[in-house]
Design goal:
This protein has 21 helices and 36 strands. It is of the alpha/beta class and 848 residues long.
Length: 848
Amino acid sequence: MPKLLRGLLLGATLLATPALAAKAPSPQARLDAFASGLGYHITVVDNKTMGNGCPETPLRAICFRADLDLTPPKTVPEGDWAIYASFISALLPVQSDTFDVTHINGDLYKLSPKPGAMLQPGKTYRLGLMAQAHLFSPYFLIPNAYVAADGLKPRVIAASRATIDKDTGQEVLPFVTPLTDEANLATQHPTDKTQWLTPERLYDQTTARATTAPAPEFAILPTPLKAQHLAGPAIDLNKGIVLRTALPVQDVAAALKASGLKTAKGGVPVTVTLTQGAPESYHIEAKNGAVTITAADSAGAAYALASLGQQAAYEHGRLKPLVVDDAPRFGFRGLHLDLARNFESKGHILSVIDEMARYKLNRLHLHLGDDEGWRLQIPVLPELTEIGAKRCHDPEENTCLLPQLGAGPDNAPGVNGYLSRADYIDILKAAKARHIEVIPSFDMPGHSRAAVRSMEARYRRLMAAGKPLEASQYRLQDPQDTTVYRSIQNYDDNTLNICLPSTYAFIDTVMESIKAMHDEAGLPLRIYHIGTDETAGAWTGSPACQKLMADEHIDIHQLGARFITRVSDILGEKGIEPAGWSDGMGSVDPKDMPKKVQSNSWGGLFGGGVADAYRQANQGWDVVMSTPEVLYLDMPQAADGHERGYDWASRQTDLYKVFAFMPENLGANASVMTTAQSQGATIADTTPLTPGHRIAGMQGQLWSETVRSDAVADYMLFPRTLAVAERAWHRGDWEPDYVPGKSYSFGDGSVPADKLNADWQDFQAKLVPELRHLDAVGIGYRLPVPGAHIVDGKLEANSPIAGLAIQYRVGQGAWKTYADPVAVNGPVSVRTLSPSGKRVGRMVTVAP
């Protein structure tokens, strides 16, 4: 046979052989390709829908509308598959010819192709989303939707991932259309007067707050009680110091290291001694070539070194003779970190502790357990972290929790994780060395889904092992409970059954474990925060609760109070004081509680929170102001469609608002603060403080629903935490004295604007050196957006933090430093620059 013919026949044979034909992609490969290529995009249409499918209810008759566009690639999975996506608000029924949309639990939804639906590659399928809620920020929309099918590995939809902005280093959501339609998106209710803080409006706002003042003599932050310079030659601290003290070295070692003061043979003598005085107070006297510090305790000595280091840095090491007398306004100056919703790394917690010590904050409230996660290892109950610290695609939750808040299907690091026992002890030791008390919390009885599901996994494991008594020992659910309820966060199974003895056995065991960690670290567990959040409607169908109510002659509304008093008794037996959020604590009869009780007051200033705070203070409780309008640092820092944060309490919690807070005269805040709808209002003092009672302290809170990285945590915490520290330590001379029964209204002149703004300018001048410090230690604080406008062809710009450099560019030209009004043509972009010159803030654009 000729070679040519033989070759043609062989080729034809090969082409005809099925085994050698092009191999079809595997089911996993098809799903992978689909997740990689699926178009996924959300556009917020409006926040003002009335009717058109938006039901009218007693609380709300207005909805948001958004469009979810899905565009399949050429490869589509076969068989049963679904998209899983998170939506914070409870969606109304979605009308679609192609997809069935089902609520799973919490914020997780399932989008399944309808039977017989055939997705056409390249065709966009639009799902109209609606909820009785609002979408004022793109960050209400959650990333990391994913595709899953039985027997296959789920995959995150690539187009739904967040990305990192190359200029700011912050997370952005490219799958969300930018919010630009102010008329339809900035507000919802007709009475809402909020306007987006455009560069032009910000310019005017910044100008109105500005005053002309010389640079301050002192840069100690928080501001000391008294400080003055003395006559005489400067003291050269650049050559180092020699520390002389009888205090244990560990009491001041961390403060000395953080102060920037270097020890050196032959350096300036710095003598530290203890004397009688108010707790944490100190006195510094620097003259005649030496520094003398007297303090009431080790904490005061550490704070004195921090203040000395700040002032020395401000004067470039050439310290003018001075005297400083200082003492804190409050004994409780706190910061709350939510590790439960999204995890925060041990390293980041330690860095926050360092900054807390620098700014004289002394309480770290760690929120370690909630619906979305349990974040502390309890060795005797391993499921709490083996299950409760993970989120992945496991509908039965045998290996992990459901992936709420965009956690993704594969237990991704960052948002998932936990503190090992050793990690927690390290944190406690670091806090102790910096005179910070740690207050742990696992929210109970509501917000407890991670604990509930973990203990159900434990129950199943032990039942399968033939150990029914051990299985039920720590069970948190009544198996015969028929109650149907839904929490604010849309969970139907997130509440402990507080009528079961096993619930209290669980709490006792957890407390013993945590107490042992504190004892090992040498930082005793003095306060435990119970949480006290409840879920309306829980327990009504529980036989265990029905029996308990009958036995004790109480009704269902008294169960929550009974739980709090019972847990307080457990704590009391261990020498631990109870704390909780004010609403839950308000249900308890003070006579049933220990003498020492802490209540974190989180009622709204304009919604009865003032009366609640004063009422509980009058009971003799330690009331810690945790006011959401001002002190919830997860609220957005500007009313702006580009800013991150929940906004149910405040559309704009900027640095100035935190600085201007008046924690000892709560009603007076109405003079300078508007409601969440930007309206002036009146706060009446209906429940005055009685003589001998006062507010015990204040605390900033960072809840983490929209905080998915340590970098985002930095952005939300700093520099606002410095304003929290300022108000917790120092009372401004512009704060009016508390007058029982006095009412305040917006703009009534009760707070002298000239004094407030002069103090604000002084604070900003002290802040810039601290931003330089934060740059040096790697804290990615928020750089403000500049104010800017173009008038008569000239760009005028200012920074909400005076002293920060501003850059501008015309079109896509080079960035230039802004100094004075400059002639420009066309739109101009502006941004602020960090003192280090290495970081920039978010860019905004202004046009003539």
